[in-house]
Amino acid sequence: MELHNLTPATGSVRDNKRKGRGQGSGKGGTATKGHKGAKSRSGYKQKRGHEGGQMPLQMRLPKRGFKNPNREAFTALNLDQLQEMSDKFKVTDWTIEALREHNFISRTDKVKLLARGELSAKVNLTAHAASEAAKKAVEAAGGTITIV
Fold first, then answer.
1. pTM for this structure?
2. How many helical (H) and strand (E) elements, i.e. helices and strands, does the chain have?
3. Are residues 127 and 111 in contact, defined by beta-carbon separation less than 8 angstroms?
4. What pLDDT does 125 receive?
């Protein structure tokens, strides 16, 4: 066996179809693209979601909902979480900076205290907002809430 004897296995290599090379080839004239129309032209590209003139799906579906551009998003802090954090870190004065140091909130988060759970520790908390029930629970335990 030498280099000039090497050939690919039979049936593994086919010749390309020579489209658009005259009527005698059997693939001439329209070059297997059918007759006329945009799809037969060079550079044809159909837009995403185009349904051939039928009303597209995204336009047939109803519009729903509303995004309020003035919405203020808060990170919720519940009483049971506050109790757990106070027990774990032995901290009674929770400021926003202290919450950031203990990785409870990120740099831009706003904190709202909510009333889920029980609070027995005397805690002084600084937050951006608090529910009425949470305020009463903190004051009942002997602590204070400062709204920033």
1. 0.58
2. 4, 6
3. yes
4. 95
- Looking at the chain, list the stretches that DSSP marks H as alpha helix, in order from N- to C-terminal side: 57-60, 79-89, 96-101, 132-140
Question: Which token pair is 132?
Answer: 């009425």
Regions of the chain with pLDDT less than 50: none
DSSP 145: E
Asked whether the beta carbons of 121 and 86 are under 8 A apart, the reply is yes
Furthest CA-CA distance within the chain: 99
As a whole number of angstroms, the distance between CA 127 and CA 81 comes to 14
Q: What are phi and psi of 78, to 5 degrees?
A: -95, 160
Residue partners of 110: CB distance under 8 A and separation at least 6: 72, 73, 74, 75, 128, 129
